[in-house]
Amino acid sequence: MSRHLKIAAAQLGPLHRADSRRVAVRRLIALLREAHGMGAKFVVFPELAFTTFFPRWWMEDQAQVDERYFERAIPSAETQPFFDEAKKLGIGYYIGYAELTPEGRRFNTAVLVGPDGQLVGKYRKVHLPGHAEHKPQAAFQHLEKKYFEVGDLGFRVWRFMDTITGMLICNDRRWPEAFRVLALQGAELVALGFNTPTENLHYPEPPALRVHHHLIMAQSMAFQNATWLVETAKCGLEDGFRMFGHSVIVAPTGEIAAKTATEDDEVVVFNADIDLAQNLKQTMFNFAAHRRPEHYKLIVERVGAEVTPANP
Ligand code: CDV
Prior knowledge:
Blueprint: E1 4-11, H1 21-37, E2 42-44, H2 62-69, H3 80-89, E3 92-100, E4 106-113, E5 119-124, H4 144-147, E6 157-160, E7 163-169, H5 176-183, E8 189-194, H6 207-224, E9 228-233, E10 236-238, E11 241-243, E12 248-250, E13 256-259, E14 266-273, H7 275-282, H8 287-290, H9 298-301
Parallel strand pairs: 1-2, 2-3, 7-8, 8-9
Antiparallel strand pairs: 1-14, 3-4, 4-5, 6-7, 9-12, 10-11, 12-13
Helix pairs in contact: 1-3
The structure holds 3-methyl-2-ureido-butyric acid.
């Protein structure tokens, strides 16, 4: 009999600057209960799920930023009720938060927690988009390079709920290398939370095209790496700035199995056949039989593109 896991994307609508952790935790608990009621065993929550997407704001008082937006411990007194509820319901999950370590380092982080409430794994975002300097002329900022360090834990997978599961965060989904490194460790399921502004900060782009890119990336990354993929948004008009929804569960065939329809709190669930990933890994995407890494060396040797014509 093939392995099945009922997986959910638990999308969050906007969380404003005025919203306390208590508000976030209450809504996250409501999503947990809804997912549980729909039969979900594994739930993927968004990136930075306890607060507004604060990198859109230039803030100079780092102590205040730490106090308001970063977690010194997970769970904390304020977030504990969420962790307690998940354990009570026996749900495994992925959730993103801003991590402040005891050494004073700051990361955009996600954790994987088992249905027994035990921490299984931690991932720190590697691909930090945006900029570090203030752009006073811009409608909003994207200051991930100011508030976070590049993740130092690499791309890893864990044996989790009878699957092999990896974690990524938001902008990582634009980089095929991230998925391939997980797939090379056997990933059958990838969990990813995101916050994606509807407006492109750097150049004009129709909102529909932003969503189109999000969906084609999800479908191609899942298919080319023969893995289930859950991508969950925080979205809607947050602090007056719109972010798109379109949270998706994508099958290893590249087909969208479930997708949200709103830009608010919403759960979608799919009973995923995990062995579908294994079948593709043994056929079309049998890496051991078909990959040619001797021709891929530039991928790790070169960062930016350089023109190297074969016939100079
Ligand atoms: N939170 C993100 O990483 N957002 C980026 C935006 C800035 C492009 C994304 O890739 O969706």
